[in-house]
Every structure is written in C-alpha cells, then in structure tokens.
Amino acid sequence: MSCWMPGCPALSMCRGLAALPIACLERAKDLKTRLGILLHKPELGHKAGSSSKLQLGSRRRDSSREVLEWRESFDQLLKSKSGVNAFHTFLKTEFSEENLDFWLACEDFKKTRSKTKLASKANRIFEEFVQSEAPREVNIDHETREITRKNLSGATSACFNEAQAKTRTLMEKDSYPRFLKSASYQDMSRQAASRGTSKRSHT
Q: How many domains does the chain have?
C-alpha cells in the first residue's frame, strides 16, 4: 500500500507501523538492561564472597608459615610484627620485657633525623633503660653502660649500638630458646602445622 498525498490514511498507517518497531526496541533494551542488573547482582555477590574467602585463606596460610619461620632464627622472629608481639608477651611472663622494649626503642631511635630530637630521645632512652637503677634497667655490663653514657655527649643514631647489640645477644642466647620451648609457642606452631597439612590434603 502506498500513497503520496498529504493526509492520506495509508500514509499515517505506514508512519505508525514504522514507529512501532522503534518503540518496541526501546522497551526491549530497557527490559534487557534491568534484567541484566538483576541477574548479575547475585553473581557479583558470589564473586565478592569468594574473593574475600580466598584472601582470608591466603592470610591464614601466610600467618601459619610465619609462625613456623620464627623458629628458624631470632632474626626471622624480629622481622615479624606478630612474632615480636608473641615474644613480648612471653617475656612479660619472665619479667624481662624491658630487654625487647629497649631494643625496639633503639630501632626507632635510629630512624630519627632531627638532631634536637635525637639528643632528647637519647637521654630519655638512657634514663629509662641504661643508667644504673633505671626504672627498666637492662642487663648490660658496667663498661658498656659507661661507653653509652659517653656517647650521649655527641648523640648520633649509633650511640646505643653497643648496648643494643649486647641486649640482643642476651635475648637470642637466653630468652629466645625458652620462648621456642614455651607452651604458648608450641601450641601456636602445632596449629600452624595442622593448617599447613590441611591445606596440602585439599590440593
């Protein structure tokens, strides 16, 4: 059917038919978009949940491996933040946590860049841990104590090096072996080992 005359009913009908598919297509697109959103929501939620579970599992494996690495060397223990915390808790039971606190204070002290802060921090650390009858006096010999005292007159980032090294050696030779034999660490290492075994049996 065709008509070229203006106002012809056939022409209006053709226009109506031509417009119909476009309107339908617009509605179809809209419905498809809405359905797509609804259909993808659970999938996205599932993926996010799976991802978080994988990350949690990965963190557990990492922490388990870390716990077992603490027994490899004292350095491995000191490199681990959770290892330092566990060792500190153990030292508290022996009333000797001041040794680790002094070592940590020295590590922080070495990062100080300001000369003014360096001097004030040095005096504070010396008064708290090193001088005779200090509130938290560490177990170092008289000679090392005097060397450290002299170093304060021209405080540098290295002024506690000798005292820190002596305290570290004391912890490594004395407290660290006892920590590895302690019930708390034995329990932690058993749990870590069982998690590792469980992981291997599922792969």
A: 1
Does residue 47 form part of some domain?
no
| Residue 22 domain flag | no
pTM, entire model: 0.67
CATH code assigned at 148:
1.10.167.10
> Helix-strand-coil percent breakdown of the chain, rounded to 5?
80, 0, 20
Q: What is the mean pLDDT of the chain?
A: 79
* Nearest of 43, 63, 44 to residue 55 by alpha carbon: 63
CA distance 103 to 96: 12
- For residue 108, which phi and psi values (nearest 5 degrees)? -65, -40
Give me 65's structure tokens.
């491996």
HSE-up of residue 175 (Cα within 13 Å, Cβ side): 24
For the four alpha carbons of 132, 102, 170 and 181, in that order, the dihedral sign comes to: positive
| Alpha carbon distance 11, 196 (integer Å) | 79
What confidence tens digit (pLDDT) does each residue in 95-120 have? Answer: 999 999 999 999 999 999 998 999 99
- 129 domain-assigned: yes
